[in-house]
Structures are given as C-alpha cells and as structure tokens.
Amino acid sequence: MPKGSLLRAGYSQDRPHLLAVHDGCSVKQSLAHGRVWLTDCDATRGDSGSPVLMRRGATVDLVGITAAVTGGDTTGSLVVPATAFAAAPKQ
C-alpha cells in the first residue's frame, strides 16, 4: 500500500472531452487482503480504468487502476493495485 500523495487522471462521463485530475488523494484502507484499496481520490461515472499515479522524485509511477466509485456520503474510489496485474499469469 503506497504511503504518500496520489493523483488520478481520467475522462469522466460528465466531461468526457476534458482530462480531469485529482491531485493529493491517498489510500485510506486496504481491503480484500490488499487486493483492493479504498482511496479518497474523487471519481465519478466514466472514471473506471483511469490510472492512479504516485510521484517519486522526478518520476511518476503507475500504482493502481480505478475500478469503482464509492457511494453514499463517502467520496472516493476503489482501486486495484498495479501489483495485482504484475502478478497475473501470462497467457
């Protein structure tokens, strides 16, 4: 689970022609034995599949992929860590 500031960039359904970026969000909780993260990265319909990135010095690393938007009074998103894809069997 990354420690530090994240950013999510995507083309939301409400403004599909404009790249939206949420900078400064973070992982709040690790779920399903680390296979899913609950973040406070703002997201809406259409943001599924958008990258979640982390700045590390002069580089930007892909740390996850937005999978779902949280509902209710909680603003945020569910993210699948990039390590889950790296560990997937090659076919």
From TrEMBL:
Keyword Transcription regulation attached: no
Molecular function, one GO term: peptidase activity
User: Is Protease among the key words of this record?
Assistant: yes
> Per the UniProt entry, what are the Gene Ontology biological process annotations, in alphabetical order?
proteolysis
Signal peptide range equals none
Gene3D superfamilies tied to this protein? Trypsin-like serine proteases
Provide the alphabetized UniProt keywords.
Hydrolase, Protease
Name the chain's protein. Protease YdgD
What are the leading ranks of the lineage? unclassified sequences, metagenomes
